[in-house]
Amino acid sequence: MPTEITGTARFVSDLHLRAERPDLVQRFAAFLADTAAANVDSLFILGDLFEYWIGDDDLADPFNADVCNLLRSTADMGVSLYFIAGNRDFLIGPRFAAAARMMLLDDATKVGAGCTATLLLHGDTLCTDDLPYQEFRRLVRSEDWQQRFLARPLSERRAEVESLRRRSAEAMQAKTATIMDANAEAIRAALIRHDCRRLIHGHTHRPGQEKINVPPGQAERHVLSDWDTNRGDALEIGAAGVRRIDLSR
Q1: Is the pTM of this model over 0.90?
Q2: In this structure, what are the phi and psi dihedrals at residue 214, rounded to the nearest 5 degrees?
Q3: Beta strand 102-104 with 80-83: parallel, antiparallel or unpaired?
């Protein structure tokens, strides 16, 4: 696991890649090519790379294999790849990571120290007001649930995920924007608990940045965009500081 952000690093989240959206894969391929051409040292993918992932034994699927090959080619060009699981692709495991030459990180990963100490999250753990979601998250992240799910045939898993996606969309319509957003106290508590002065995450689809008051001063929070038809971004940290890269179309 990296302990420092050395050289230049980029961060993306919530690409939601899927076969029915080839435009997203094309944008991702262009972004990876630019990342390698710009001699970026590290790329951190903070979850929801895929719209869903039903297990590493689905790696033979042509779409999944194509995305894996894009990542591996980028790693072969000298970019170190890191991944934090999202709420859609938390079943990505060692087999996919090895094939893509990508390192799996903990749900909450701290890199750097002092005033540059940075906490990396997908961001769903910060949405503490959404109690039904947090209960569901605990269920599907349990070893017992995952073992039972992964033991089922791929066709059954795919059908179950499609059902879950429909139910999730319906449930979101009944929730307020505030409930689905990151909780301010949860943000502050995470920064204090991990002794960090910078937080980078996605998940909420509410891109932006803000200052957070934490002892003994201030921290900064950067929220990454999802990659939809009309928007998308990446955060870059390098010698020139922090900058947001607009990837919208």
Answers
A1: yes
A2: -135, 150
A3: parallel
Q: Is 161 helix (H, G, I), strand (E, B) or coil?
A: helix
String of DSSP letters for 92-122: --HHHHHHHTEEE--SSEEES-GGG-EEE--
> 74 with 81: CB under 8 angstroms?
yes
> Quick one: pLDDT at residue 2?
63
What CATH number matches the domain at 9-246, 3.60.21.10, 3.30.479.30, 3.40.50.970, 3.40.30.10? 3.60.21.10
Closest CA relative to residue 96, chosen from 57, 61, 62: 57
Residue 7 near residue 236, CB atoms below 8 Å: no
pLDDT in tens, 73-131: 999 999 999 999 999 999 999 999 999 999 999 999 999 877 789 999 999 999 999 99
- Dihedral of alpha carbons 21, 79, 10, 39, sign: negative
| Tokens 């059954």 sit on residue | 156
* Integer Cα distance of 208 and 143 in angstroms: 34
Domain boundaries, the chain: 9-246
H helices within the chain, ranges in order?
Answer: 22-37, 62-76, 94-100, 131-140, 143-150, 154-173, 177-180, 184-193
Q: What is the mean pLDDT of residues 60-77?
A: 98
Measured distance CA(27)–CA(33) in Å, rounded: 10
